[in-house]
Design goal:
6 helices, 208 residues, 41% helix, Rossmann fold, globular, FMN binding, electron transfer activity, FMN dependent NADH:quinone oxidoreductase, FMN, alpha/beta, oxidoreductase
Length: 208
């Protein structure tokens, strides 16, 4: 039995989000193929996800110096610790997110900052950083209004390439991608685009 973490990154209602709808197709197929696995949902727009701000930086500095943290500082770094431990406990991680303004929503970056923690998901060695999460499988289910996988806009794709690099940095090599793109570019084809991506999602989910 595997422990699966589903990280949802969209504040819209499910029916209005292509990435969430794509993720639901994936999850339905995955649960059918793996009925005994435990799936935990982390909705970044409904949970507390600390940003690296003045409090967090101060807390890290104080912790290194052995100084006492303020209540706010302690609350934020404690929450960061909870999020990275949750990530570490997962055997498989499912991300669903849209591309907004050539990148992920801001809470996706905030979440990444919460799990890229030295000594937890990677460590520094004399030969450079080494990932500590090599035992995980990760899939990204992404929706894009335009077309960025090929053509003139391909050089503007900063989403899956970023997440793939981050996961590789912490040791994850088993990385999968399902993209639905072009819905805003060709809105009349939006349903067909999602349907095609959904078939790909089912295919990946069946063996994930």
């Amino acid at each position: 039995m595997a422990n699966v973490l589903y990280v949802k990154v969209n504040p819209q209602v499910d029916e209005a989000s292509f990435s969430t709808r794509l993720a639901q197709v994936f999850l339905d197929e995955y649960k059918t193929a793996n009925p005994t696995d435990t799936v935990t949902t982390l909705d970044l727009y409904k949970e507390t996800v600390p940003f690296i701000d003045g409090d967090v930086l101060a807390a890290w500095g104080k912790a290194g110096a052995g100084e006492e943290l303020s209540a706010v500082e302690l609350e934020k770094v404690t929450r960061m610790g909870e999020l990275v431990e949750q990530f570490l406990q997962a055997d498989k991680v499912i991300f669903s997110a849209p591309m907004w303004n050539l990148s992920f929503p801001p809470l996706m970056k905030a979440y990444i900052d919460n799990i890229l923690i030295a000594g937890k998901t990677f460590k520094y060695t004399e030969n450079g950083p080494v990932g500590l999460a090599s035992d995980k499988k990760v899939v990204l289910l992404e929706a894009r209004g335009g077309v960025y996988s090929e053509g003139p806009a391909a050089e503007l794709e900063f989403t899956q390439s970023y997440l793939r690099t981050v996961m590789s940095f912490i040791g994850v090599q088993d990385f999968h991608l399902v993209v639905a793109e072009g819905m805003a570019y060709t809105p009349a084809e939006a349903d067909n685009i999602l349907a095609k991506a959904s078939e790909k999602a089912k295919e990946v989910a069946s063996t994930f």
